[in-house]
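The methods section describes the discrete structure representation at length, but only in general terms. Since the whole study asks how a given chain folds, the encoding of that fold should be made plain. An entry of this sort, consisting of the sequence and the corresponding backbone structure tokens, reads as follows:

. . .
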Amino acid sequence: MNQKISDRTFNFAVKISKYQVSLKEKKYYEIASQLFRSWISIWANVSEAQSSSSKKDFINKMNIALKESRETIFRLKLLEQ
């Protein structure tokens, strides 16, 4: 799989969007909203990193994306319970 990270994060954002709809149907409004925001932040920061002005800026944006991904994983695990 040689897909760019920006494409992979976008594709996963689409899946999260669809999952968010099913969560809202189950009346999990707050966690659905939080999950969507954290994942969209990952996609946005990865996208911004692709056009960063310096290596330091790139690393900073990717670190933010990493933190948001940990938050997203936590929420997904919480939903599994």
